[in-house]
Design goal:
Length: about 300
């Protein structure tokens, strides 16, 4: 039965981490911030708990989840690392990089978390709240973004409540997430980026993989991050009835970054989409954002929002 009200506990409140770990231990879901977006975490080794994530999100069950672990040792219990994977882990973990790797022999991850694939998406997050929860739980946590399936990813506890209030038991609130955009997902064996994110193609020296390529990342469903109203891209001015999200010289009702800073823009992107969605305007327009560096990930999310 879905819980009636969703409790919110501030990170740092005595007992907050213990309370969250207790919910996870009995197979429940907890919304918890990472450095990218809020995740909806449950015990990755417990298929009933993982089913609870899919149920709360209304997510199609073929879409596999990212498994979060506190460090490389814990990651090696879950996935098989070759030298390329080890080098990436050494360089970028903890941080917003997800590696798609073969499942380790004897991996305890529930098949439902990987949607039955023989690979697993794994990452070591840097955020203090997720790190504390992982350590308190002592098991890998499956965590997709904490929003109803297809909706805008949450970068604040209020965003989580807006789509999942009453559907999850607990939110661990630690304010706005710093990066604001989901982790970069890579296939280390093929040197491909499956989902652009905070760590850029330039930083990795990897090419962008085929959309829905051989390893499908079904989270690459075209209509993702979709607000409830039409979204027009590359807008240089506001048309009647629109809420304009600005960037650089294009000043909007809300502006991603007046100075044209892509890091600032990424951190504000989902917050801006949530505000636009909640506004009275009938439609949303977004100013052009360059495709360089982090701009690739920003444009990827914008195109899915506009689909
Ligand atoms: O920043 C993030 O990555 C956030 C935070 C909470 O960690 N999580 C997140 O999870 O964005 P989610 O479930 O919304 O996105 C997971 C993505 C999906 O596109 C999914 O298809 C892909 O990872 N994925 C998961 N397992 C995969 C696998 N074995 N092979 C290829 N893609 C996989
Ligand atoms: Mg998501």
């Amino acid at each position: 039965n879905p819980p009636l009200g969703t409790r919110s506990l501030r990170y740092g409140t005595p007992g907050a981490i213990e309370a969250a770990a207790a919910v996870i231990a009995r197979g429940g879901c907890v919304a918890v911030p990472t450095e990218t977006v809020y995740g909806l975490a449950a015990d990755a080794t417990d298929s009933r708990a993982v089913a609870g994530i899919y149920a709360a999100k209304g997510r199609p069950s073929f879409n596999p989840l990212i498994v979060h672990v506190p460090d490389l040792d814990a990651a090696r219990a879950v996935a098989r690392f070759d030298d390329a994977a080890l080098a990436l882990a050494a360089r970028w973990w903890p941080g917003p990089l997800t590696l798609v790797l073969p499942l380790a022999d004897g991996s305890a991850v529930a098949a439902l978390a990987t949607a039955g694939l023989d690979t697993v998406a794994v990452r070591v997050p840097a955020h203090r709240a997720m790190q504390a929860l992982l350590k308190a739980c002592g098991r890998p946590l499956a965590a997709p973004s904490a929003n109803a399936s297809g909706g805008i990813s949450p970068t604040r506890a209020s965003h989580v409540l807006a789509s999942l209030d009453g559907r999850i038991e607990l939110i661990l609130d630690d304010g706005a997430t710093p990066a604001g955009i989901e982790s970069t997902i890579v296939d280390p064996a093929r040197g491909l980026i499956l989902r652009p994110g905070p760590i850029t193609a330039e930083q990795l020296g990897f090419a962008r993989g085929p959309e829905g390529g051989a390893i499908t990342a079904p989270g690459q469903l075209s209509s993702h991050y979709a607000p409830g109203k039409p979204v027009r891209l590359d807008a240089t001015e506001r048309r009647s009835g629109e809420w304009l999200i600005g960037f650089g010289a294009v000043e909007g009702d809300d502006t991603l970054s007046a100075s044209g800073d892509l890091v600032e823009a990424a951190s504000r992107l989902f917050d801006a989409l949530h505000r636009a969605d909640a506004s009275n305007a009938a439609a949303i327009a977004v100013a052009p954002v360059p495709y360089t560096g982090l701009g690739e990930a920003i444009n990827d999310r914008l195109q899915r929002a506009a689909f």
